[in-house]
């Protein structure tokens, strides 16, 4: 297939996520994770037509999809659900039984894939910064063997030698069920967890191993066959831009502060026009 020379890093991340999905998989979709949602839908549009989505929005399972959005996100999940259920039932009955693949975004992560989405700083009462919270991550990561991770902005803020708090279990000696994460995608490269530690398996076009090491707060293992990440195809880029996410919602995960606020305003104006 024709490889694209015109793609953005958000498109590459979503494409790499889609390539982790297999035909017949059930995937879990969290809240405010458009890079992941775009990757899931791309997989369904290309090589996994019988993909099922289990969504935190409305706690439903659906097989159909709709383009990404902000104000009309319910049309993707609520209106297309095959079945719906409450969070307690989903966490205790259905998710353990269905064993879906799920991508989590850690705020902090150590070398073994343990993660923190609670707060930065050792003092819980007065943290340096409070994060959105762990949601269902503690419930899922202690049981599941289908955990995948993504970090849109690779930095030493995220990749640390020691967590301030533990909210997601990785390759941990205290684990009794499930497994640690299989895979990690960032804006610099792709990684696995061979022998239970983070290992670079590919480097994105235009990036270097030296840059990855400089932006990671611990030693980075490198696979012997570490190569350049395979770029998206022309068709994958077209699907993302024209069909799956024409508003560019996926780009929000790479922005912060005023830039993110401005991008959200522009998306809402287009969506409500």
Question: What's this, in brief?
Answer:
The protein is α/β, with parallel strands linked by helices and 273 residues long. It contains eight helices and 14 strands.
Notable features of this structure?
273 residues; two-stranded antiparallel ribbon; Glutaconate Coenzyme A-transferase; 8 helices; alpha/beta
Assembly type of the chains comes to single chain
Query: What is the rounded Rg?
Result: 18 Å
- SSE sequence, one letter per element: HEHEEHEHEEEEEHEEEEHEHH
Specify the structural class: alpha/beta
Distance between the termini: 36 Å
Main beta sheet, described? Answer: 10 strands, mixed
**Overall number of domains:** 2
- Order of strands across the biggest sheet? 4-3-2-1-5-10-11-12-13-14
- Poorly predicted spans: none
Mean pLDDT: 90
How many separate helices? 8
Shape: globular
Number of strands: 14
β-strand amount: 15-25%
Helix fraction bin: 25-40%
Structure explained in plain terms:
This protein is of the alpha/beta class. The protein folds into 2 domains: 1-104 and 233-273, no CATH class; 105-229, 3-Layer(aba) Sandwich (Glutaconate Coenzyme A-transferase), CATH 3.40.1080. It has 8 helices and 14 strands. The protein has helices at 9-18, 34-46, 74-77, 87-98, 137-141, 209-214, 234-244, 257-272, and strands spanning 26-29, 52-55, 60-62, 81-84, 101-104, 108-109, 115-116, 119-120, 129-130, 147-151, 183-186, 189-192, 199-203, 221-228. The strands form 3 sheets. Strands 4-3-2-1-5-10-11-12-13-14 form a 10-stranded mixed beta sheet. A two-stranded antiparallel ribbon has the order 6-7. Helix 1 crosses helix 2 and helix 2 (34-46) packs across helix 7 (234-244). The protein starts with 8 loop residues before the first helix and ends with a helix. 39% of the residues are buried.
């Amino acid at each position: 297939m024709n490889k694209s020379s015109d793609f953005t890093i958000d498109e590459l991340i979503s494409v790499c996520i889609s390539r982790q999905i297999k035909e017949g998989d059930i995937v879990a979709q969290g809240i405010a994770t458009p890079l992941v949602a775009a990757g899931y839908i791309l997989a369904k549009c290309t090589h996994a037509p019988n993909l099922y989505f289990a969504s935190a929005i409305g706690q439903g399972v659906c097989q159909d999809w709709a383009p990404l959005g902000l104000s009309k996100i319910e049309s993707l999940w609520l209106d297309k659900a095959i079945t719906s259920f409450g969070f307690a039932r989903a966490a205790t009955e259905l998710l353990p039984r269905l064993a879906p693949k799920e991508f989590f975004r850690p705020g902090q992560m150590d070398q073994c894939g343990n993660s923190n989405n609670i707060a930065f700083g050792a003092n819980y009462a007065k943290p340096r910064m409070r994060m959105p919270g762990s949601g269902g991550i503690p419930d899922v990561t202690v049981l599941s063997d289908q955990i995948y991770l993504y970090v849109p902005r690779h930095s030493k803020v995220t990749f640390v030698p020691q967590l301030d708090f533990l909210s997601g279990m990785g390759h941990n000696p205290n684990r009794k069920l499930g497994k640690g994460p299989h895979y990690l995608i960032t804006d610099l490269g792709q990684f696995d967890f061979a022998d239970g530690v983070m290992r670079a398996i590919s480097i994105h076009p235009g990036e270097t191993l030296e840059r990855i090491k400089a932006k990671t707060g611990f030693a980075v293992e490198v696979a012997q066959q570490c190569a350049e990440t395979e770029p998206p195809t022309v068709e994958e880029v077209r699907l993302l831009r024209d069909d799956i996410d024409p508003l560019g919602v996926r780009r929000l995960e790479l922005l912060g502060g005023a830039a993110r606020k401005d991008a959200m305003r522009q998306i809402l104006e287009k969506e409500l026009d």
